[in-house]
């Protein structure tokens, strides 16, 4: 809903409608200015940095030569990191759906008076910092921790096997950290589903599974799509989980960008950032088109 | 002497990462769609009006400064204050107070703001490069940075010249070995704060002695249980040693061979992680059992966990220093010199050394240490003798373009 339509419902004489829309624009001014300064300008600067001649350095300055070659070279050098990032993000997103959907469903339909408490429990991890939570996983998954010991005891892990510093640990961390972003939109969608529709489904002799597939799932699609985006996008760009829970061979694209930036290779770092952004935008557009939920956004 | 405060790893890792998280959150997501909608409304035309964007579109100019162009003034006579940026846990602490620093304040009446906002050389450089590159103040009077970064900043002309005459203690007490670094002959721009050694640490509860780097990177029982440092000079120094080159003077081909060796080691799965200070926690818990380590960290850990051992690898030890410098446009050069001079008094230096456990660059500290903490006298990691130092090596000083290329190759290997 736009600010204009909000304003037009205020009990002011209808003659002031034009005035109201002008007010809307004035109200928009500050956020727009904010976006301009903190989004548009940095974005333009990022894109131009990605086209600098990499022969420059901080000392000598960078020449703007429209060096599109930067993109070719980062794609050649870091293709495996890009693929790995998307693979991990996809795995984490799927894990979030598998864990988050039943949870959101239970909160929406079965929790009864525990509903609010359960919602608080979903949000509770945000009371501590992202970093502390990820560091805690380092301890939980550690080689000498009980969890790894137990797995070694039942021979799921070899005697020298470990959980920490593996792709499994990175995906676990990503899943854990982004799970609430999946659960909350799903819950909002499911909560709006009228239970009588499900009753109608069973009245019409649909099995519970068919009712779920034909009624509940389609009605919860907006939440599922929003949850997927909120999980997948930040997970693909994340580097803390790979840094703290991974090993040198599980580094993601975020780690590479950080290293390039700190090592002083600005044009390449920028080219890689723009690439990541572009790939994500394209994937999201395709996904939304296929899911048919443009009106959500 | 507060030994309980030696918990170096927790704070350091957290500090560093907290800032990374903050940065990560800003940079993470792609553009969101509500923003896109707004942007469309705003019109793409506004983009063309962006002066910042337009400027960036023309490239950037160099950031080198010279003493003639970038003139700093000294307000020390009127303003009795000083801002000092140092690494975390790198000065004597007693609870929340800093005893030697407070003594300095009451002696001189100079009000010192002490910040521990240097966690990583490259990160700190990224933080101040815009100001220093444009000859603007950074609001810091003293910064402490490692040799190679100090060399880079001095090379960029970002550092004010010091007056040795104003620092008689430095003149008299600076150890001979640190007087003539290749990148700052005669110590015109920098004065060492602490030096340290890079070697091997292991947790004797989980593994036997690891006596050489060769062993560290090849022994089968250590597979997936060692860590190495992200600091390029340290790690590549040892790789160069392993491939038979001299870390203080090597050719491009030798660099390539050393890097190939590292690549093999990473591909074999031997290395679990490349770390900064944060290896200490993992070593303590046994997630890693042996690692490339900094001497001061290890001594500090030994107070709480006697299983931790530091070894001088057969290949030798890497020696480095962190240096105090006064950046351009810092307004309190005089006060800064007074502080540097104060810390070159052996009695003061001994108090700092007893807490931080790194090598003290001040002559006479070992004698003064007898008063502060008898047990540390003769500790070869704090007071190495000249024979101890014979096995040490330093990493070649590189010009910044070469370093950038090397860093990139190195990072590609350690984050494959």
Provide structural commentary.
- The complex is a heterodimer of chains A (297) and B (416).
- With 297 residues, chain A is mostly helical.
- Chain A has one domain: MetI-like fold (Orthogonal Bundle).
- Chain A is built from 12 helices and no strands.
- Chain B is an alpha/beta fold and 416 residues long.
- In chain B, strands 1, 2, 3, 4, 5, 6, 7, 8, 9 and 10 form a 10-stranded mixed sheet that branches.
- Chain B has 18 helices and 10 strands.
- Residues 1-53 of chain B have low confidence and may be disordered.
- Chain B folds into 2 domains: 81-195 and 320-382, 3-Layer(aba) Sandwich (D-Maltodextrin-Binding Protein, domain 2), CATH 3.40.190.10; 196-319 and 398-414, 3-Layer(aba) Sandwich (D-Maltodextrin-Binding Protein, domain 2), CATH 3.40.190.10.
- Helix content of chain B is 43%, strand content 14%.
- Chains A and B meet through helix 2, helix 5, helix 9, helix 10 and helix 11 of A and helix 1, helix 2, helix 4, helix 6 and strand 6 of B.
CATH topology descriptor of chain A: MetI-like fold
CATH class of chain A reads Mainly Alpha
Main pleated-sheet profile of chain A: none
CATH architecture of chain A: Orthogonal Bundle
What is the CATH homologous superfamily assignment of chain A?
MetI-like
**How many helices of chain A in DSSP terms?**
12
**Second CATH tier, the architecture of the largest domain in chain B:** 3-Layer(aba) Sandwich
The proportion of residues forming helix of chain B, as a percent range, comes to 40-55%
Helical run tally of chain B: 18
String of helices and strands of chain B: HHHHEHEHEHHEHEHHEHEHEEHHHHEH
Tell me the Rg of chain A in angstroms: 24 Å
Shape assignment of chain A? globular
């Amino acid at each position: 809903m736009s600010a204009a339509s909000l304003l037009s419902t205020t009990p002011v004489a209808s003659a002031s409608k034009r005035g109201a829309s002008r007010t809307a624009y004035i109200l928009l001014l500050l956020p727009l200015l904010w976006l301009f300064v903190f989004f548009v300008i940095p974005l333009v600067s990022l894109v131009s940095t990605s086209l600098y001649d990499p022969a420059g350095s901080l000392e000598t300055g960078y020449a703007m030569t429209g060096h599109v070659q930067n993109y070719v070279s980062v794609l050649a050098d870091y293709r495996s990191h890009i693929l790995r990032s998307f693979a991990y993000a996809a795995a984490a997103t799927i894990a979030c759906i598998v864990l988050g959907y039943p949870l959101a469903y239970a909160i929406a339909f079965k929790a009864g008076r525990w509903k609010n408490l359960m919602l608080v429990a979903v949000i509770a991890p945000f009371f501590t910092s992202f970093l502390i939570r990820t560091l805690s996983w380092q301890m939980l998954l550690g080689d000498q921790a009980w969890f790894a010991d137990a797995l070694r005891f039942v021979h799921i892990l070899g005697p020298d096997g470990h959980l920490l510093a593996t792709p499994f640990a990175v995906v676990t961390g990503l899943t854990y950290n982004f799970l609430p972003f999946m659960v909350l939109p799903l819950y909002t969608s499911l909560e709006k589903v009228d239970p009588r529709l499900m009753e109608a489904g069973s009245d019409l002799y649909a099995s519970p599974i068919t009712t779920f597939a034909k009624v509940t799932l389609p009605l919860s699609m907006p939440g599922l799509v929003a949850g997927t985006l909120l999980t997948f996008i930040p997970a693909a760009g994340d580097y803390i989980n790979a840094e703290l829970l991974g090993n040198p061979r599980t580094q993601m694209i975020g780690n590479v960008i950080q290293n390039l930036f700190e090592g002083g290779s600005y044009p390449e770092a920028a080219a890689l950032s723009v690439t990541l952004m572009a790939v994500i935008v394209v994937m999201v557009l395709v996904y939304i088109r296929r899911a048919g939920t443009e009106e959500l956004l | 002497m507060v030994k309980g405060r030696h918990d170096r790893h927790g704070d350091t890792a957290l500090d560093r990462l907290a800032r990374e998280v903050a940065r990560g959150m800003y940079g993470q997501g792609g553009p969101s769609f509500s923003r896109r909608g707004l942007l469309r409304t705003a019109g793409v035309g506004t983009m063309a009006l962006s002066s910042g964007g337009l400027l960036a579109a023309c490239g950037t100019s160099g950031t080198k400064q010279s003493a003639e162009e970038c003139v700093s003034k000294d307000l020390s006579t009127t303003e009795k204050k000083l801002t000092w940026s140092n690494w975390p846990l790198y000065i004597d602490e007693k609870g929340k107070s800093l005893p030697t620093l407070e003594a300095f304040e009451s002696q001189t009446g100079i009000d010192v703001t002490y910040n521990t906002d240097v966690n990583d050389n490259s990160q700190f450089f990224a933080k101040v490069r815009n100001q220093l590159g444009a000859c603007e103040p950074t609001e810091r009077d003293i910064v402490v940075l490692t040799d190679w970064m100090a060399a880079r900043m001095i090379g960029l002309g970002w550092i004010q010249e010091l007056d040795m005459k104003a620092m008689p203690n430095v003149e008299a007490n600076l150890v001979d070995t640190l007087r003539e670094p290749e990148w700052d002959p005669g110590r015109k721009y920098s004065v060492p704060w602490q030096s340290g050694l890079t070697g091997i640490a292991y947790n004797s509860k989980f593994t036997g002695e690891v006596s050489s780097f060769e062993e560290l990177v090849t022994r089968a029982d250590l597979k997936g249980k060692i860590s190495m440092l992200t600091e390029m000079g340290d790690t590549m120094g040892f790789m160069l040693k392993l491939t038979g080159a001299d870390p203080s003077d090597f050719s491009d081909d030798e660099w390539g061979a050393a890097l190939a060796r590292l690549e093999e080691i990473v591909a074999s799965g031997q290395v679990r992680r490349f770390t900064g200070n944060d290896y200490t926690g993992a070593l303590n818990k046994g997630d890693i059992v042996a690692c490339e380590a900094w001497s001061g960290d290890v001594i500090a850990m030994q107070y709480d966990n006697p299983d931790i051992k530091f070894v001088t690898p057969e290949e030798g030890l890497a020696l480095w220093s962190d240096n105090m410098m006064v950046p351009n446009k810092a307004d309190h050069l005089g006060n800064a010199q007074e502080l540097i001079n104060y810390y070159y008094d052996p009695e003061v230096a001994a108090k700092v050394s007893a807490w931080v456990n790194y090598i003290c660059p001040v002559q006479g500290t070992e004698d003064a240490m007898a008063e502060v903490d008898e047990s540390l006298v003769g500790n070869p990691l704090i007071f190495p003798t000249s024979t101890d130092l014979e096995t040490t090596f330093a990493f070649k000083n590189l010009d910044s373009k070469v370093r950038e290329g090397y860093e990139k190759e190195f990072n590609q290997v350690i984050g494959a």
